[in-house]
Amino acid sequence: MQFYKPFIALTVLVLSLSFPVCADTWVDDFANELKATAKKKKLPGLAFVMVAPNQPTRFEFYGKTEKSGTLIDKETVFRLASVSKTFTAVFMAQQVKEKKLAWKNSLQELLPDYKFDNYIDTPILLQHLIGQSTGFIPNAYDNLIEANYKLPRVLEHLEKLDSLCKPGICYTYQNTFFGVLEEYYRQQKTTFADEITKSIIIPLKMPTASVGKNALMASKKWAKPHAAIDKNKWVSVRVKDNYYKYSPAAGINASAADMEIWLKAMLLEYPDIIDKNMIETLTKPRVKTKREMYRREWRKQLTDAHYGLGWRIYNVDDIEIIYHGGWVQGYRADVAFSPQLGVGYALLMNAESNSINKLTATFWKDQIEAHKIGLLADIKK
């Protein structure tokens, strides 16, 4: 789930670099900054991973799963929080490709026993749910998720909401509405977890990715969540299951090794599973996200910002960065890639800290500057 609260601890960073000029230098500098930040903030741990088409994968790690835990490595599993929405979006695109669902399926069609459509002439569609443009007040009834209300009861509350705009017109970020997909698959006598696992996670051969709280805690090695009790002081907390009940919104778990594969898939290295048309559909700008333009660490770089289907689309110096972030208690995650540059990035943390915002923005600033240097070098040749 996407939030703008702090939290940190473990970091996975995955990138694909399409240019050789100065690449090693700036990436080394960024890796050093990453570790220096972790040390300064006294973070429990972090992991850095870099993949490039013609280069060996690079891994950097810092810290442990918890104070008395084991060292972080590429198979240490984290909660992805709202980065899960990128998995859900890809899964939905696959379901559409296989004609099991359609982007124009209304929520009413998916769950006939509920009524979500305030605009009869403009029903809320699957593409509105995945595209965060349902038209209802942002983060509607997240408080009920956090209060651990049962899913059917939350869906009943959603029926009573008043709309801010017609579906598809304005950006209205949600978590609770993803419960529609959770309930839809339950009524199909299966589960969202089972379906996305057999359709996405297993075909991509992700070694440690999973769905749900029990799966996280059953992992051979997983990063324990940490919350701040004072500035730069962290304490281990229990894993909450509330948002796990909305797994299409925030239920995926993954390691650096898994995210390496995920970013490669976004960069079309697994076309038999995730093809170009799917990615282009998901990353097409659909609703403008004005608030993103004022994010502290991004505002000097951003020239435009939209939401597509399960992904944010940032324009940074005429380079499109496809991005999503996530937060739940004790974890933070960022994932991004640029088809234009052939670059992918992910940063996973198991403590609550806003330093992830600066690190991600810095990475892309440095990445784009290095790209320009590479272009100039090519011209001089």
Automatic annotation (TrEMBL):
One Pfam family cited in the UniProt record for this chain: Beta-lactamase
Signal peptide: 1-23
Example GO molecular function: beta-lactamase activity
InterPro entries referenced in this protein's UniProt entry, alphabetically: Beta-lactam-related, Beta-lactam/transpept-like, Beta-lactamase-like_AB/R
Assigned EC number: 3.5.2.6
Sequence ranges assigned to domain Beta-lactamase-related in this UniProt record: 34-354
UniProt keywords, alphabetically: Hydrolase, Signal
Family: Belongs to the beta-lactamase family.
PANTHER family assigned to the protein according to its UniProt record, in alphabetical order: BETA-LACTAMASE-LIKE 1-RELATED, PENICILLIN-BINDING PROTEIN
Protein name, as recorded: Beta-lactamase
The species this protein was found in: Brumicola pallidula DSM 14239 = ACAM 615
